[in-house]
Amino acid sequence: MDRVQVLAKLNRRVLETFSRRTADALRAALPLRLALPHLEPLLARNVAKEVRKDTLVIERAGRALACGAADRDAVSELLESGRRIDREFLAGVGLIPIRIVVPYDEITPLRARRVAQLLDAAGRILQSWAATRRLRQALRACFTRDEFERLLEEDLRLYALETLALARAVRLPAILRPARESIAQRLYETMRQVAARLARDAAATAYRAGR
Fold it and tell me: Running DSSP on this structure, what letter comes out for residue 97?
């Protein structure tokens, strides 16, 4: 079993679930429902690129563990890889009716924190998993349930902050432009609420008694 790829697939499921639940919540809010045709393509493409970036982080953690040495350049090199993925993302955005300029001054510190956190968590989980057959046992050896829930919620919070910065950079129709900041803030608040529920649900599943 390739534990690195299993962990990457689990991370993908979490992010895709987060994006889907966010879109469902947005449809229930009238002001955001008006902007949804412009935001939903962003959310769908954004989650795809973030999955790719996170997979690189998890793979990097796996290689560092296999080498048994500190990977001092990991964060900076992963940030640069992320920029290359962003360029591909922006090229794809040209196929849908939105326009974005990535605000790197705002996003890079958030992304660096998220990369460092995921790199550390993935390394700890993979190291623990090497001594047991089951991922749940590895998680429980690394984190208490509350720690795991907080870790996941913080990861999704940083993801939401990046998405907020991108949403502010989306070119909206003239009728919606006066409400741009309000729409962006409502999007962020919705993502935070969804993140808290998803983190709680994931922790409950992973730490369920008898499993």
Answer: T
pTM for this structure?
0.87
Which of these, 119, 12, 135, lies nearest to 60 by C-alpha position? Answer: 119
Amino acid identity, position 80: E
Let me know if residue 48 belongs to a domain: yes
Write out the residue range of the structural domain in which residue 65 sits. Answer: 3-206
Give 72's DSSP letter. T
The answer as to whether 116 is a domain residue is yes
Instruction: Find out whether 164 and 184 touch, Cβ atoms under 8 Å.
Output: yes
Dihedral of alpha carbons 48, 50, 56, 59, sign: negative
pLDDT (tens digit per residue) in 99-140: 566 788 989 999 999 999 999 999 999 999 998 889 999 999
Distance CA 84, CA 74 (A): 15
